[in-house]
Please model this.
Amino acid sequence: MLAGLWLTATDAHAIELPFLATGTDDDGVARATARQNLDVPLAPALRGCRLAGVRLRGLHRTHDHVVLRELVVHVGAPLEQPALRESVRRLRNLGVFRRVDAEVAAAAAPADAVPLPAGATHCGLTLRFDEKWTLLPIISAGRGGAVNFLTLGVQDIHLLGRLLSLEAFWQNFGGVNSAGLVFADPRLLDRRIHVGLTAALLRRNRARFDPDAPGAPAAEAALAPYSRHRWQFGVEAADLRRPERIWRASLWWLDDRFDTSILEPADAVRAQAQGVPARRRWLMLGLGGRLGRIDFDDYLERGATLELAMLAGLAPGEVAPAGRGFVRAALTGKLALLPHRRFNVVARLSLRAIDHVVEEIGVYVGGLDGVRGLPDSRYLGRVAAVANLELRSALLHGRWLALQNAVFVDVGHAATEVSALFRPVVPVSAGTGFRLIIPTIARFVARADVAWASTERGGWLLSFGAQQAF
Model:
């Protein structure tokens, strides 16, 4: 997880916060004044009507085909409630519209229409949109896991009004510079197939901690760090045709080089005495999938997912410490409830494992790895478990500004064996924070959290983010 305060699009979708009650218009479709009804109920008199046509209103930048390819209702076929609901959900989950409202009304039969059975009728579907602004600069300054960083760049998740995504960024992370370029097409050839391309140079000063002193203050437990320089190129593909069942695959080439060139002088002397990892090139194949789905209503979430991700790495022509490759897996479950129109309860459990620890390819737990209140990369091991629970409550909502409070608890640990995850002390972090949302900007959620960890003596840690923490 990368923390930051981004003045740009992020990974949190947005629609409209439900504050006022839902009303019913004359057309028989239940719609909301200050929220959107995720279920899109259809008036009983219009259920099963033959769809005569679809009208799109409010599209200024978005091409019509971007909307039409998301629909699972078809002109000339009966209009059923599940298909209407799924079509609107898919449009809202794109994240490029502030509102998507559906209206169904009786309509005249088209001139070439086939005669209907007795009692049947024709109807028309009107979809009304409120588009978000999606071309934005990336201006990020933040802190997470006791690490400061600054990011500058530009991003558009709706390039040319065609739902293409392009991002270019420069980042200073803890005093070290990195840069990258990311392009994605989530509807390759107008099919629900996602393809993404990434090229980046990622440089880090990686901290190391003594695994035998999990309860010690961070300053005492820290070992000599090292500098890592990683060239990373990758292609990812995902089958999105069924939102409740998604499959993914990826192929990556990584070139990792380690030295002390960008360390502080005192740390460089310690690192040279202790030694740094040898250079390694990795060819990695990733496979995974997700069951379930999360639907979005502004910055509120509802649904459940179970996700499995596996990554196999091979170091061609090089000898890794425990063979010539590794296998890493992660199983993550997420549950989001909306018990009240102002409250969102979200929980996550993540289990991770690798067959043997390789520098930079291990299983980490820390401030930027799931447990706010811990220093970044605080724990490294073969197995890890992280659990998160947040209660998010709405404090303010308007067309141009929304504010949300969150109270959270994070628990997580990494160790060499499963039995060691729960001894001698399991790190627990708790805290509170705020989320600032601008509903008219695509996927904008700026997060600020403060957390205290039971196993650390360094006091409270601040964390800023460009999206929800999970």
